[in-house]
Amino acid sequence: MDNNTTLLLDLDGLAVAKVERLTDGTRRVHLTTADDAARACPSCGVFAVRVKGFVQTRPRDLPHGERKLELVWRKRRWYCTEPAYPRRTFTEQVRQVPAGARITTRLRVAAGRRVRDAGSTVVQAARDLGPSWPTVMDAFRAAGEEVTAAALKPVEVLGIDETRRGRMQWRQNAETGRWEPVADRWHTGFGTPSAPRACSGRSRAALPRTCWPGSPPPRTALAGGISHRTAET
Fold this sequence. Notes:
Blueprint: H1 3-9, E1 14-21, E2 27-33, E3 50-57, E4 69-79, E5 89-91, H2 105-118, H3 122-129, H4 133-148, E6 157-164, E7 169-172, E8 179-183, E9 186-191, H5 207-210, E10 228-231
Parallel strand pairs: 2-4, 6-10
Antiparallel strand pairs: 1-2, 3-4, 4-5, 6-9, 7-8
Helix pairs in contact: 2-3, 2-4, 3-4
């Protein structure tokens, strides 16, 4: 198959051998290994020289066009002759299709980011891209860790809002006969508007009373760089 087809698929470490169209319109793409590092033993790292045989794997990939695309990778199983390690055989793997993977790495990443960045539900991402619900959920967790592990930008504008959770609960005092509150739950939320040095709030009337600089910010590590704050009043 022409190298242009391999370039069009753009699956690192794999080359397109041929493409055929099945009776139902599915395009079946036959792949071969194009990365010499794939024959390095995953246990010891030594490059194998003896082939034991061939196996086929069918990893799912990102959609390409309107018709279904089926990948078939014919890869080699190698002998590992390094005596210091117990592994005796292994199959080839590349970055986009690790050993034992049923989907490509780029499909897993795209599924996680679909939920994290596009606001899609896990169910909808699974329907659109093809993986199962648990697979998409695992991918979303991995994508979320990329964000939570990154350093936060300094906060300049801070918004504070309180929302009542449910209704107040009352109880009648047996001695006085008066009704007294027993539960009044609130949630306090903090937000950082995208526009720096700009006040935000639900009510325009609240802004003049809540925006800094009117008094110095609290002496805490969080508020050290805050120049403006807003609050619901």
